[in-house]
Design brief:
The protein is mostly helical. Helices cover 83% and strands 0% of the residues. The mean pLDDT is 89.
Length: 133
């Protein structure tokens, strides 16, 4: 009887170890996936936002790259992904950037343009800290 009890305890401990190992592995993989998705969304958002900002303020012209409408769609897609994946304060900074970029034109003052660039820098630092944590 004690032999059966010892085998049962050993088997139960083994099953518990396997279950805990797979649970921890799954959680780690989920965290890694989320980090990758946040990074991809942030890169897509900032790339589209920077290109759109340059086009709207009249610094980049020509037909060698994506047009304003395509960039606006990519910017909005990135912003939507950030809203789904990131904390609310990070998503709010993405909203601020989007508003500032869409209000940019060739007559926008240098101070307003500098404020937009500063907001992008704050967003980049914030999303970097969020991904690292």
């Amino acid at each position: 009887m004690t032999e059966i009890l010892a085998v049962a305890i050993g088997a139960s401990a083994s099953l518990l170890g396997v279950w805990l190992g797979s649970w921890f592995t799954g959680r780690r993989q989920d965290r890694m996936w989320l980090k990758e998705q946040k990074l991809k969304a942030a890169v897509d958002f900032t790339t589209a936002g920077s290109q759109l900002f340059e086009q709207l303020r009249g610094r980049r012209e020509g037909s060698d790259g994506p047009g304003i409408n395509e960039l606006a769609v990519r910017l909005q897609d990135g912003r939507s992904a950030l809203h789904l994946l990131c904390r609310s304060d990070t998503a709010e900074l993405a909203d601020d950037i989007t508003r500032q970029v869409f209000h940019t034109d060739p007559s926008t003052s240098a101070e307003v343009q500098a404020a937009t660039v500063a907001t992008v820098r704050r967003f980049t630092m914030k999303v970097r800290r969020e991904i690292e944590s």
